[in-house]
Write a structure and sequence with these properties.
By secondary structure, the protein is mainly alpha-helical. Helix content is 64%, strand content 9%. Helix 5 runs antiparallel to helix 6 and helix 6 packs across helix 7.
């Protein structure tokens, strides 16, 4: 267990990344920048905090890429299940800390911290879904989704299409359900991939 935690950087890189993500979103607040939006024929204003979950997905990919196949295959513990628990734990931590901090600032459902955990769940889920086919290149899938949503996801300057749910506010049930489903599918895919490797 200790060796797994060290290999996955669960006591160093991952906690530091969680703190950095939290601080970045806290400092950015509602800061937004105009980016090209091809469906609007102009630009859309996008909060910078939308890109932080992509960074978290990249860090998770880095941690998962520290596998030691020979040791993991001969070990008793189900390593992929530990990986899945680690990812769910990161998502839960970012969600809990983000929501509690936003409540302290009395910015109910408006501070980007409310959506940090939700959107990280989506980015991590996409990463895990793509890893069996793309390997390390899967880290580009969450990046592609964010830029795809920014470029093509708006039907009006402040109204994204349903598939651009990561741009929805914290009160959106569609975004919450979609991100939860993607995260769950990714975690399940990650665990099942281990079972295929064992066959």
């Amino acid at each position: 267990m200790t060796l797994w935690a060290r290999c996955r950087k669960a006591t160093t890189t991952l906690p530091a990344a969680c703190v950095a993500a939290f601080v970045l979103v806290l400092l950015m607040g509602g800061t937004a920048v105009p980016l090209p939006a091809l469906t609007l024929g102009g630009s859309a204003t996008v909060q910078l905090s939308q890109f932080v979950p992509v960074v978290m997905a990249a860090v998770l990919a880095l941690c998962l890429d520290t596998r030691v196949p020979a040791a993991e295959a001969s070990g008793i513990r189900k390593i992929r299940r530990l990986d899945a628990a680690l990812i769910v734990g990161v998502i839960a931590l970012l969600t809990l800390v983000g929501v509690l901090t936003a409540l302290v600032f009395e910015e109910a459902f408006t501070h980007p911290l409310w959506t940090l955990g939700r959107n990280t769940a989506c980015a991590a889920g996409l990463l895990l879904l793509a890893r069996p086919q793309l390997g390390r290149a899967a880290v580009m899938v969450p990046v592609a989704m964010v830029f795809g949503v920014v470029l093509f996801g708006y039907r009006m300057p402040t109204d994204p299409y349903p598939w651009g749910f990561i741009l929805e506010p914290a009160t959106s049930p569609l975004a919450a359900v979609a991100c939860a489903v993607i995260a769950a599918a990714g975690v399940i895919t990650h665990v099942l991939a281990a079972q295929k490797e064992e066959l």
